[in-house]
Every structure is written in C-alpha cells, then in structure tokens.
Amino acid sequence: MATSTYLSNPEVLFGAVNLSDQCTSVQLVHTHEALESTAFGGTSRVYTAGLQSNELTITMFASYAASESYATLSTLVGTQIGTITVSPAAPATPGTYSATNPGFIISGGYLESLPVMNASLGTLATMDIVVRGGVYTVDVS
What span, in angstroms and rounded, lies between the C-alpha atoms of 20 and 11? Predict the structure, then answer.
C-alpha cells in the first residue's frame, strides 16, 4: 500500500523559463551504464556503475507565442542546455525544494531535435522533446 501520494502537477523550468503551463507529461530516467567487472573464477556476472546516461522526455503543447514552448526551445536544438529542473509540484517559494518536493536537475543535457509541427484535425497540437545525457542532481535544500 502506498504510504505517500501526490497529485501530478509538476513544475518544469528551462533555466529560469517556466514552461509548466505548456506541459502535459514529464518522465526523467536516471541511469548509470552497467559495466561488467566479472573476474576469472566468478560464478555469476558482476557489474559496476559506469557513466550517467540520463533521459528527460517532456510532452508539451505546441505554442508559438513569445516566451512559450517553441520560442524557448527552438534556439536550444543542437546544444547542451544549461539546466532543466523538474519537480513534483511548484514550490511555494520559487527555487526552494525539500525532501518531500525535490527539484530534479539535468545540467548540460543535449536537445537533438524539436518537432516544429505535429497537428491533427480537432486536437491540440503537442510535441514530444527528448533531452539526453547531462549531469543529474537533486536539490532538497
């Protein structure tokens, strides 16, 4: 049985730009590549942590207004993004996270592509972006 639950309403910041009101889904996967370290005489494979290989996937509405999703992301394609912070909920005081509402940070993640148009008749247009790599940290200050 779950001991703690929360209503999913994450905060999404690209640097200081808050795109939370444009996002419908966020998934951050923190990974360390598995490096085999099995030695002669071992009876089973043994692994150790290698490089971080993080991936952040965000689904957001395609908005072309100033300071919205397209305007913010279009200049970041093909670059390492300074910081992206996602948290389960917007903190009461911006930038102040806690153990129960941590800020998950990707620094230097790479945005390879941006779907500039993804539309279907009768639906709100969305785009899925994927940020790969970067250094993963957690802010609970």
Answer: 5
Question: What CATH number has the domain bearing residue 90?
Answer: 2.30.110
Q: How far is CA 32 from the centre of its chain?
A: 16
Cα 13 to the center of its chain, rounded Å: 9
pLDDT at 4: 64
Reduced to 3 states (helix: H, G, I; strand: E, B; else coil), residue 22 is helix
2 inside domain: no
pLDDT, tens digit, 9 for 90 and up, residues 29-83: 999 999 999 999 999 999 999 999 999 999 999 999 988 999 999 999 999 999 9
Measure the CA–CA gap between 105 and 87, rounded to whole angstroms. 9
Count of structural domains, the chain? 1
- Residue 70 inside a domain? The answer is yes
